[in-house]
């Protein structure tokens, strides 16, 4: 496996790094909006760190026992999910590109003065530099997703990073918005409702997509400063192929019609507390979950 995760296979080219620097500035600018938002609810730890808010029941089933396991959460943003995973007994580390996000995550972690969350640490680094940034640390679990992969230009290099972080026998758990979800866009009509149509690419191939948005996905005021961001499309086949190419073995792949929050106004809340499209809409996947493992030998 070691020959599959060399430095050259993990490092993005300079052009991609420059584009990721645009995202770093954007996430630094988003962070004060997010920390004050009702969406994240950081004013109330019980709300912000409620496991049901961030994780579907099947995620805990897929992850299995976390107590005593070393876990790294890549692209952790404010670190809420990182702390929830620590609350399940994992020795958790969060890593994020944004210095402002990491500072906010550390503040939230510092409020957890006792219990399993108290030892959670956070590291600022580009995800492609995670192996170097974390030094000799290797992990039983790499967790990531829910808006992570779209900010990565190269999934082959990302998969090599994941493989380099895992101990033999360790697993990646990826719970990510489905590329089909990212392809949908609402189209207002003269009739009631806003039907969803395919408006964006599902597959990669057109390169970086630049966006300029004053508001983020949370409530709150407009972003001040760096409003531009860059995204890349990745189909589900690309994700699986990148991971198997890095030597990981896919153990399960789920497709889910529910989201942890309402992406569009038409979505309805389910008994699980999550959100799906209304009954009249086709059943399509909005999120997927994948577990992959680094072979022992």
From TrEMBL:
Q: Which Pfam families match?
A: Methyltransf_12
Q: Report a single Gene Ontology molecular function.
A: methyltransferase activity
User: Which keywords, in A-to-Z order, does the entry hold?
Assistant: Methyltransferase, Transferase
- Spell out the InterPro entries in the cross-references: Methyltransf_12, SAM-dependent_MTases_sf
Matching entries from CDD domains are given as:
AdoMet_MTases
Q: Which stretches make up the Methyltransferase type domain? A: 73-172
Which Gene Ontology BP terms does the record give?
methylation
Q: What is this protein called?
A: Class I SAM-dependent methyltransferase
**The species this protein was found in:** Streptomyces albidoflavus
